[in-house]
Amino acid sequence: MYNEAIINDTKEMVREKLLNEGTGHDWYHIERVWKTAVTLAEKEKANRFIVELAALLHDLIDDKLVANKDEAVQEVMYWLEGVGVTSKDSERILEIIETISFRGGHSKKLNTLEAQIVQDADRLDAIGAIGIARCFAYAGSKGDPLFDPKLSVREKMTEEEYRKGKSNAVHHFYEKLLKLKDLMNTGAAREMAEERHAFMEDYLTRFFNEWEGH
Ligand code: ADP
Ligand code: NI
Fold first, then answer.
1. What is the CATH classification number for the domain harbouring 186?
2. Atom of ligand 1 at shortest distance to CA of 176?
3. Domain that holds residue 13
4. Does 44 share its domain with 131?
5. Taking 60 as the threshold, does the pLDDT of residue 57 lie above it?
6. Ligand nearest to the CA of 32
7. Is residue 101 located within the same domain as residue 156?
8. Which atom of ligand 1 is nearest to the CA of 177?
């Protein structure tokens, strides 16, 4: 059953926890994923309560953010119990955030609509205008360049450069961002992704034109 107080309490808890996060999984990323997930849930007629809570909690157990994943899962479980989410709903929410935080879960089709929506919303935040901004912000934080013609193709990298994971922002478009459109689970997300994808292609065309002095 939809319970707005539980959503609000959870939102405040996550906001406080992530306000100073620096890995691209800050509170505003969560807030955007949450809003996008609501849009998708309405279009796809999914269970909004489950979708909203899973979207809000989706990064709290990510091993890029927490030292101990099992502990983080426990904490989320206690939280849900504490705010009065039924154990059946808690299980559904935890299953969603565990499956989508699983790295390389790329090709595995998620088995509930609610999980598919949260994953789609998370992926939509990695493309389009926001996705471009996040990509350059991430590269900057790693000390990677905007673009390096030498490093843009795996074949041109030395073994050491490749091992060190030395990359550049534009390379990340080809390695990941331009692939996300075709990985969307739901029709509603695919529709949103089309537009964001086209914008990135346009962006890259302009980027390379300007790179060449045109
Ligand atoms: P997720 O949110 O799916 O866990 P990541 O932690 O891999 O994704 O990435 C967080 C953000 O940083 C995303 O917007 C992603 O596109 C961007 N990012 C990840 N790796 C790179 C990279 N090597 N270069 C530029 N941007 C990156
Ligand atoms: Ni995320």
1. 1.20.58.1910
2. 16
3. 1-106
4. no
5. yes
6. 2
7. no
8. 16
Instruction: Say whether both 71 and 134 belong to one domain.
Output: no
Q: Who contacts 16 (Cβ-Cβ below 8 Å, separation ≥6)?
A: none
Q: Cβ(199)–Cβ(130) under 8 Å? A: no
Q: Are residues 102 and 133 in the same domain?
A: no
pTM over 0.90: yes
Cα angle at 207 between 125 and 32, to 5 degrees? 10
Looking at residue 167, what DSSP letter applies?
-
The pLDDT of residue 100: 87
Question: Side chain identity at 151, as an amino acid letter?
Answer: L
Q: Domain count of the chain?
A: 2
Ligand 1 site residues, Cβ closer than 6 angstroms: 24, 64, 122, 126, 131, 134-135, 138-139, 167, 169, 172, 176-177
Query: Considering only CA atoms, which residue is closest to atom 26 of ligand 1?
Result: 135
Q: What is the 3-state secondary structure (H, E, C) of 101-170?
A: HCCCCCCCCCCCHHHHHHHHHHHHCCCHHHHHHHHHHHHHHHCCCCCCCCCCCHHHCCHHHHHCCCCCHH
> What radius of gyration do the chain's Cα atoms show?
18
Instruction: Examine residue 20 and state whether it is found in any structural domain, yes or no.
Output: yes
Q: What integer best gives the mean pLDDT of the chain?
A: 91
pLDDT in tens, 94-146: 999 999 876 655 556 688 999 999 999 999 999 999 999 999 999 999 999 99
Residue 96: inside a domain: yes
| Any domain includes 191 | yes
Q: In this structure, is residue 120 part of a structural domain? A: no
